[in-house]
Automatic annotation (TrEMBL):
GO biological process: intracellular protein transport
Native organism: Electrophorus voltai
Keyword check for Nucleotide-binding: no
Name of the featured protein: Vacuolar protein sorting-associated protein 26C
Phylogenetic placement of the source organism: Eukaryota, Metazoa, Chordata, Craniata, Vertebrata
Superkingdom of the organism of origin: Eukaryota
Function of the molecule: Component of the commander complex that is essential for endosomal recycling of transmembrane cargos; the commander complex is composed of the CCC subcomplex and the retriever subcomplex. Component of the retriever complex, which is a heterotrimeric complex related to retromer cargo-selective complex (CSC) and essential for retromer-independent retrieval and recycling of numerous cargos such as integrin alpha-5/beta-1 (ITGA5:ITGB1). The recruitment of the retriever complex to the endosomal membrane involves CCC and WASH complexes.
Length: 315
């Protein structure tokens, strides 16, 4: 059996904060003794920015990514060159999660056009004729909770044909009146989004009512970059102004199905998914923001949407 290298962190959830110590063990398993030229650990953190075809148009095949932004890159030696005995060997380690200089560690986030990822990699260098071994594991970084109390900023809403925007032929819309409220638009990311919705009246039967969570990712573009030139040439909104802004769906939850009873309160309840959401983030190079849409689908296939910007934070 060939040698197997594994990496295990002590924290089961793999969630850390800046200034804490990553502790765990390097596990080496082999039937026979293993000669090596040293074992090391490397901690890396990057922001990867990707531009959509909507932003860069026909040139996206050539220019569809931005150079990654490095947040952290540290290295420590776990074991000096030597030999590991046969069987299972565990080497404990502690790796401080600290940045050098004035760099900032952003919260882990997996998006479509913005990805913030932190990894720990173990490398075992082997003699000339043996293959080097490597094992990588991802860990999550959460930003420090804010000390000030979050003001929930609840919002009441009324949806009628007259309140809708971006409507070409308002006269063909069915008559309806929908009221509701969101308990907070400044949301604690570990707590659900809650509220209530009531269909007061509707001329047309309702087919479905849904909650759609949306990520809005913005990448700033350099004036010296080909992205800016492409944006100007194609006159894309946003891109021509020096940024690429894209909104994509994270999750969609149906809160009512069929023609619901009029005057019946329908609860709004949505949990923010881990990894795919983070505390609202705004930097000089990119922004990550969130919105929620209340979507009403009628049986005649008319679809109406009410949009609410959200601010997510940790406390």
């Amino acid at each position: 059996m060939s040698a197997v290298l594994d990496l295990k962190l002590k924290r089961a959830n793999k969630v850390y904060h800046e200034g804490e110590v990553l502790a765990g063990v390097v596990v080496i398993t082999g039937k026979e003794a293993i000669q090596h030229q040293g074992i090391s650990l490397t901690m890396e953190g990057f922001v990867n920015l990707q531009l959509s075809s909507k932003s860069v148009g026909v040139f996206e095949a050539f220019y569809n990514s931005v150079k990654p932004i490095q947040l952290i890159n540290s290295n420590i030696e776990v074991a000096k060159p030597g030999k590991v005995p046969g069987g299972k060997t565990e080497i404990p380690f502690e790796f401080p999660l600290q940045v050098k200089g004035n760099k900032v560690l952003y919260e882990t986030y997996h998006g479509v056009f913005v990805n913030i990822q932190y990894t720990l990699r173990c490398d075992m260098r082997r003699p000339l004729l043996a293959k080097d071994l490597s094992k990588t594991c991802e860990f999550m970084l959460h930003c420090q909770p804010q000390k000030s109390k979050v003001q929930p900023s609840p919002v009441d809403f009324i949806i009628t044909p007259e309140t809708l925007q971006n409507v070409r032929e308002r006269s063909v819309l069915p008559k309806f009146l929908i009221r509701g409220h969101l308990d907070a638009t400044n949301c604690v990311i570990t707590q659900p989004l809650t509220g209530e919705l009531v269909v007061e009246s509707s001329e047309v039967a309702i087919k479905s009512i849904e909650l759609q969570l949306v990520r809005v990712e913005t990448c700033e573009l350099s004036f010296k970059s080909p992205y800016f030139l492409v944006g100007v040439l194609l006159s894309k909104q946003g891109c021509a102004e020096g940024y690429a802004r894209d909104a994509t769906e994270i999750q969609n939850i149906q809160i009512a199905e069929g023609d619901v009873s009029h005057g019946l309160p329908i609860p709004i309840y949505m949990v923010f998914p881990r990894l795919f959401t983070c505390a609202t983030l705004e930097t000089t190079n990119f922004k990550v923001e969130f919105e929620v849409n209340v979507v009403i689908v009628f049986h005649d296939d008319h679809l109406i949407t009410e949009n609410f910007p959200l601010k997510l934070c940790r406390v």
